[in-house]
Design brief:
The protein folds into 2 domains: 197 residues, 2-enoyl-CoA Hydratase, Chain A, domain 1 (Alpha-Beta Complex), CATH 3.90.226.10; 49 residues. The protein contains 11 helices and 9 strands. The protein has a 6-stranded mixed sheet, with helices on both faces. It is globular and about 65 Å long. The chain starts with 9 loop residues before the first strand and ends in a 9-residue tail after the last helix. The relative contact order is 0.10. The model has no long low-confidence stretch (mean pLDDT 94). InterPro entries: ClpP/crotonase-like_dom_sf, Enoyl-CoA_hydra/iso, Enoyl-CoA_hydra_C, Enoyl-CoA_Hydratase/Isomerase.
């Protein structure tokens, strides 16, 4: 197996079928630089076909998850005109697309600032766990900018009505409100409880067959915008393949024999 890519802005820790990815620019509240975007995309591309990696946990070093885009990159792009700004902005959108469609389960652990691009990353997670004091928001309009790449993912996550209110007021809100909006699934009071919740959710993920999880995730995402009839036809084909596949055979046999399937051991 090829080693994981070398990174300067990320800390990578593979452990027991889980890849822990820490955004590692604490001096900038883990603001998303172009280099960090590129490294995240490279890591995701490197692991997406690795069946041994069942889940990715995305978190921040220090006290914050991610405070949004790096304004220094924007200042550097100014000399190159609008094309440079388009490229910079679209690269982050590509990251969100790729994260959304990872076959692995993507878990985000959200502390401190969860703003702009950090907010977008939370919106493409499969499981989001927040500390109650985390600060969420889309501050772009207060800076005279647009939440251009994250907007579609925010709408998908929390709905158009709430997305409009949050984007057009640049409002800040905490973990409890994020849970009420449906942005996060769990809110914990401190770092210890946050860690315990993460371990509990990972243990549940690892009970599930990786191939079945990947196919199910793809089916759920497709259900948002594909016609129902063709989608159900494809789902039936996928189900038949799963029943006859390695995981389906092992899962059924394990149930009959009253033991854990191989992937859960």
């Amino acid at each position: 197996m090829n080693p994981l890519p070398a990174c300067q802005t990320l800390l990578l820790e593979p452990r027991n079928g889980v890849l822990f990815i820490s955004l590692n620019r604490p001096q900038n509240r883990n603001a998303m630089s172009l280099q960090m975007v590129a490294e995240l995309r490279t890591v995701m591309a490197a692991v997406r076909d690795r069946r041994s990696i069942r889940a990715l946990v995305l978190r921040g070093t220090g006290e914050h998850f991610c405070a949004g885009g790096d304004l220094k990159d924007m200042a550097g792009a100014r000399a190159h005109g609008s094309a440079a700004y388009r490229e910079l902005n679209r690269a982050f959108g590509a990251l969100l697309e790729e994260a959304q469609h990872l076959p692995q389960v993507l878990v985000c652990v959200l502390q401190g600032a969860v703003l702009g691009g950090g907010f977008g990353l939370a919106c493409v997670s499969d499981i989001a766990i927040a500390e109650h004091s985390a600060q969420f928001g889309m501050p772009e309009t207060s800076l005279g900018l647009l939440p251009a790449q994250i907007a579609p993912f925010v709408v998908q996550r929390i709905g158009l009505a709430q997305a409009r209110r949050l984007a057009l007021t640049a409002a800040r809100f905490d973990g409890a409100q994020a849970q009420r909006l449906g942005l996060v699934h769990f809110v914990e009071n401190d770092a210890k409880a946050l860690h315990e919740r993460l371990e509990q959710q990972l243990s549940l993920v690892l009970r599930c067959a990786p191939g079945a999880n990947a196919a199910t995730k793809a089916l759920l995402l497709a259900s948002v915008d594909q016609p129902q009839g063709p989608l159900l036809d494809q789902a039936a084909n996928d189900f038949a393949n799963a029943v006859l596949g390695e995981e389906g055979v092992e899962g059924t046999l394990a149930f009959v024999q009253k033991r854990k399937p191989a992937w859960a051991n």
